[in-house]
Amino acid sequence: MVLSQYTNPEYALSLLEQGSAGRAYLLKDTVGEPRQLADAVRAVAAGRSVVDPAVVDALVAVRTPARSPVLASLTPREREVLSLIAQGKSNAAVAAAIFLTERAVEKHINTLFAKLGLTAEPDVNRRVKAVLIHLAEQRTAAG
User: Fold this and answer.
1) Can you tell me the distance from the alpha carbon of 133 to that of 137, in angstroms, rounded to the nearest whole number?
2) Cα separation of 113 and 131, whole Å?
3) How many Å apart are CA 75 and CA 29, to the nearest integer?
4) Strand arrangement of the beta sheet that strand 50-51 belongs to
5) Tens-digit pLDDT string for the chain (143 aa)
6) Are residues 45 and 85 in the same domain?
7) Are 36 and 87 contained in the same domain?
């Protein structure tokens, strides 16, 4: 079981190269409650695997063609938050889905708005604009 601050795909691959059964790779910033860690320990003890979604994103990213320049600056966690927003989830639902506080989700959203160049304008909903950028990338990636 690894509890790390890094989403580096090489670290995860080293842990998982002999299989994923009975292994866990969790990120310190996403294990917010002792219950989450205890659940992961029980899963590993039962032979299951637990891998943080941001680590999975990093593993997939090394096998995925380069992202559009607009979204390339987003971290895997910011892309995950954006993807959940694109599914219509509220900040509270995003927080619950990825085991963060609502405040942490708000910080990620504000950071991704800044990285996408989405400034506060009275006639533009930044959340909708970010989703449209995300969906445009999805269409481009799908060919």
Assistant:
1) 6
2) 11
3) 14
4) 2-4, 24-27, 50-51
5) 888 888 888 888 888 888 888 998 888 887 877 888 898 899 999 999 888 888 888 777 766 655 556 788 899 999 999 999 999 999 999 999 999 999 999 999 999 999 999 988 888 899 999 998 888 887 766 65
6) no
7) no
CATH number at residue 113: 1.10.10.10
Helix (H) or strand (E) holding 138: helix 126-142
Q: In this structure, what token pair is assigned to residue 51?
A: 């891998």
pTM: 0.53
Residues spanned by the domain of 96: 65-142
Specify whether 54 is located in the same domain as 72.
no
Among 60, 83, 102, where does a domain finish? 60
CB 59 within 8 A of CB 38: no
Q: Identify the H or E element spanning 11.
A: helix 9-16
Rounded CA separation 20/79 (Å): 24
DSSP SS3 for 2? strand
Q: How many helices and strands in the chain, by DSSP H and E?
A: 8, 3
Domain count, the chain: 2
Rounded to whole angstroms, the Cα distance separating 126 from 109 reads: 10
